[in-house]
Amino acid sequence: MPKELLNKQDIDRILARIAHEILEKNKGIKGLCLVGIQKGGVHIAKRLAVKIKEIEGKDIPVGSLDIAFYRDDLNIRKKQPAVRRTEVPCEITDMKVVLVDDVLFTGRSIRAALDALMDMGRPSSIQLAVLIDRGHRELPIKADFVGKNIPTAINETVEVSLEEDGYEDKVTIE
Amino acid sequence: MNLSSKDLLGIKELTKDEITLILDTASGFKDVLKRDIKKVPALRGKTAVNLFFEPSTRTRTSFELAEKRLSLDVLNLSVTTSSVVKGETLIDTALNVQALGADFMIIRHSSSGAPHLLSKIVHASVVNAGDGINEHPTQALLDAFTIKERMGRLEGIKIAIVGDILHSRVAKSNIYLLTKFGAEVRLIGPPTLIPKEIESLGVKVFHNIDEGLKEVDVVMMLRIQMERQGKGFFPSTLEYFRHWGLTTERLSIAAKDAIVMHPGPMNRGVEIASEIADSPRSVILEQVTNGLAVRMAVLYLLAGVKG
After folding, report:
1. Chain A partners within 8 Å of B25 (Cβ)
2. Which residue among B47, B59, B93, B138 is the active-site one?
């Protein structure tokens, strides 16, 4: 039976806090661009953009990034990962890019995302925001903004369900 | 979802879901092609060999670029032959290429069924880049991608394929694909260039272009294969243009926003008037760009099929 870790209100408060932290660290929205990793990260990035608009009163560019072509496990996976759209609405060169994902685990997706971003331009910096950090890193990668640290066993599954995909907002562990 | 076969031999062998998977994946690759750096590391360390037993510039360069943009190592074998290449030669060549460590073999051959034969012998993924008068699956896939991009769907689209259907593998692959998706396919051309009983594939045949073009959403012109001129299929190219060539006047019979396609290479003034080929209604160059994305998608997906 999956155990609920965060409910709708928890997620909402966390994202409000992360939005403030992003603005604090970057001193506002100048030169800022959010890029969500397909697929869960895209929804989180869009929600952060809404929060940021509520605070600053202005829109910031928010895009989606598909990392399928950059994965390091293409040779060993049973199935090729589904390819989703990559749409980044701004030139990322010289921008401060905040990469957004739902769960940070081994760090391998982030490594792939960094490579994919670098092929699109040369950002002045890349920061990382995640809703959940569940540990077990296999690469030297650390998030700048963390919603919640959740200690997990390696064989447990952390599931982020979001309304955008037709579910109720919640984070569960099993 | 994965493709079910390690090879892409024809549209006939694909399910509707598999075709949809390829087209969706191609959209992701089209995003890549819009960037400054148009290369991804997806298939790094693997090798593709292009075996072209028949002349081709467009398809071969498209495959080669698609392979390079997936970070494949590429080997081109252009086999120029004056006589038909016999089965044994083909098999020997393929086995030699396999010994070099090819993961993909892209083959074009004048004999229908050559890729099918090859696929049974080698472990590599075999991609049919045109076999005789049988199929040219990646062309039909890129055509479908282009139609879907312009029209938003394939279901219920009215499409006219005009010209030499008899010798056209492009037409055949398109017929298989479009009828699977419930499009209305009309074939237009002189009786000498339309195979008998082709209606059994679920298409309508017209011998009068003005009738056939009524209300169609897509007009696909086929190349008149000049090498067949003088073999009695049609009197002269001028005569052909008068009866079957696509002109502004004829295009006005089609739906108001109908698009014009051509698999290339075009014979301007034979099957298509220059003013149409260069008009905003023509998506001929979009087809070429989409071909790259579609071929990248095919290779990427075939790599996921584990033998």
Report:
1. 82-83
2. B59
